[in-house]
Write a structure and sequence with these properties.
Chain A is mainly alpha-helical. In chain A, 77% of the residues lie in helices and 0% in strands. Chain A is globular and about 70 Å long. Chain B contains 11 helices and 10 strands. Classes of the chains: A mainly alpha, B alpha/beta. At the A-B interface, α7 and α8 of A face α3, α4 and α7 of B. The structure holds adenosine-5'-diphosphate and magnesium ion (MG). The site of magnesium ion has 4 residues of chain B, from α2.
Chain lengths: 284, 272
């Protein structure tokens, strides 16, 4: 075999190996989803979605859990988006390069890698105890906001960095201030990247369980939360609770709840993709 | 005695007229620029009359862009930028305390080497400089947008689709749009950094015609790599070499009868 043929063979091998790797991920996901659907779909009806929890699997529903998840989602977004985007803009556009900037940079990168349970412990200390928020929605949302802040900050910075310097120069040269340039050129041009990052961060927050268990979110909450100061549960905790029960009925319930949670996350990712495509089309 | 006084008076009046006509718009006095420890411009002294076109020529890296960008303080964004000497516009040192950079840039517009329209509509590109000043009235914007695009000789090509994204225009059209955008703010000085270097010959010719037109109302400072272009569009030419202004004078004189050997060998194409 000559060299060219060898290279070609290597090329092909690598290609098929790549396809295999991609497929293995997809197949695992497909098997998982089919399995869940087969278990849970039969249980998923309007009653299941609108019922309060119960000791009897066939009576139990996910009303408190999904409303809790929606609450947590909204509050976390409200807290994390303004702070995260503002911090990203500050670090990228205002912060002078230097030792302090490097330190901040390294720390933010590290924060993104801290296990979520640590955030739970931090939240327990600061929000639940020191700020006296108890095991409330607000305490949980602050904790999750802390958890996803590094992701939003990093996404914001990366999106801002893709805005060409020439656009900023053009804006400055026309007499725009720094803030005008950021708000009218930089942020619109990087909006799709920021929004995508924000939604991906939020969908991570919605799936988090450990930190909320640590701060005291309860598995059994017999009412729908009405204010941010109420106690709460969320879908992942409800699912976790059900799968640890011995009765088969609760396993079916868990599968149905997983379908709802997955649907929520898929829709959010879909929205992220839609917004990104729309913004890209507008930019062209 | 009496006649000589009258004569003097006459002279001084004539002088005043002459000064008014040839009034100095831009000046640099012994200007030097450092980027960190590197000195990229030194002892540049130049006086530029109002309503003239001045070409800055010289080999790549000799400091032409740096010099140009002194006049709208665009170098301020470069880390470790430092300048010495005075940069003066209409008699005012523009680096002294209390100068508002944003106000300065409304007087001193700039056109860049590569066309850099905003990723917005043609209309919004031209309206941008006004909107940031808080002018949002539609009738006012409409009027200035139309006038500026006409002045930039682009109106006939775009008048029917001002809502179209500016990035769909050709390179030459984009550059004229950038000129229109600059004119909309009503500056009195326009800085151009190799404005035609990314364009084809026909677009280049249109930009050159435009520069000639604009001279009546604006003072133009243009960096160019192209000797013919400098010869065609400018009244005065400054030749930079290794951060120094080697020669500055009438364009015709510089091209036909340069005083410095360096200038001559650069113009005749022996280096650069
Ligand atoms: N941002 C910068 N930081 C440091 N040095 C720079 C920077 N921009 C330009 N220079 C240096 O300054 C000198 C003059 O550059 P420039 O004014 O762009 O020259 P020209 O426009 O004549 O090609 C060059 O040696 C260049 O390497
Ligand atoms: Mg240059």
């Amino acid at each position: 075999m000559n060299n060219a043929a060898k290279n070609k063979l290597k090329d092909n091998l690598l290609k098929y190996f790549g396809i295999l790797c991609t497929l293995s991920g997809l197949i695992a996901l497909a098997i998982f989803i089919i399995d869940i659907l087969m278990d849970g779909l039969q249980r998923l009806d309007w009653e299941f979605i609108t019922s309060l929890p119960s000791r009897f699997p066939e009576k139990a529903g996910i009303l408190t859990a999904w409303t809790g998840t929606v609450w947590v989602f909204c509050l976390t977004a409200l807290i994390a988006i303004p702070i995260g985007v503002a911090a990203g803009v500050y670090l990228e556009e205002y912060n002078k390069k230097g030792a302090l900037a490097n330190l901040l940079e390294i720390n933010i990168a590290n924060l993104a890698g801290v296990p979520s349970i640590i955030y739970g412990i931090l939240g327990l200390e600061i929000f639940v105890r020191i700020l006296n928020l108890g095991g409330s929605l607000l305490a949980g949302s602050f904790t999750l906001a802390l958890l996803i802040l590094p992701i939003i900050i990093v996404a914001t910075r990366e999106a801002i960095r893709t805005v060409p310097k020439t656009i900023k120069e053009a804006s400055f040269a026309l007499g725009a201030t720094k803030w005008q340039t950021i708000s009218r050129q930089v942020l619109p041009a990087s909006a799709s990247g920021i929004i995508t990052g924000v939604i991906l961060a939020l969908s991570r927050a919605v799936g988090e369980t450990a930190p909320l268990i640590v701060i005291g979110a309860l598995a059994y909450v017999p009412f729908v939360a009405k204010t941010p100061m109420d106690e709460f549960t969320i879908l992942p905790i409800q699912i976790f609770n059900w799968v640890s029960r011995p009765q088969h009925g609760f396993i079916i319930n868990a599968a149905a709840a997983i379908i709802v949670l997955l649907g929520f996350v898929f829709i959010m990712n879909g929205v992220a993709v839609y917004i990104r495509n729309k913004a890209q089309r507008k930019g062209q | 005695m009496i006649t000589s006084v009258i004569k003097e008076k006459k002279n001084s009046k004539g002088m005043q007229d002459k000064i008014k006509q040839n009034s100095i718009k831009l000046e640099s006095e012994n200007v030097g620029v450092f980027y960190g420890h590197k000195k990229v411009l030194q002892n540049v002294t130049m006086r530029i009359q109002a309503n003239t076109v001045t070409a800055l020529i010289g080999p790549s890296g000799c400091g032409k862009s740096t010099y140009l960008r002194l006049f709208n303080r665009m170098n301020d964004y470069i880390d470790n930028f430092r300048k010495e000497g005075d940069v003066i516009i209409d008699g005012n040192e523009i680096y002294k305390k209390g100068i508002e950079i944003e106000e300065l840039r409304k007087t001193v517009g700039m056109v860049f080497q590569k066309p850099n329209p905003f990723p917005k509509s043609i209309y919004e590109n031209v309206a941008y400089g006004l909107r940031i000043q808080g002018i949002n009235k539609k009738s006012a914007l409409d009027e200035i947008v139309e006038k500026s695009i006409k002045q930039a000789a682009l109106w006939d090509e775009v008048k029917d689709d001002l809502k179209k994204n500016a990035l769909t225009l050709s390179g030459g059209q984009q550059q004229r749009l950038c000129i229109a955008r600059t004119l909309a703010v009503q500056p009195s000085v326009i800085l151009m950094d190799e404005p035609a270097s990314a364009l084809d010959p026909i677009s280049t010719a249109r930009i050159e015609d435009l520069i000639y037109e604009l001279k009546q109302n604006y003072t133009i400072l243009i960096v160019t790599h192209n000797m013919q272009q400098a010869g065609r569009v400018s009244d005065h030419t400054g030749f930079f070499y290794l951060g120094e202004l080697v020669e500055f004078g009438d364009t015709r004189q510089i091209f036909t009868n340069p005083k410095s050997e360096k200038t001559e060998s650069y113009i005749s194409g022996r280096f650069g």
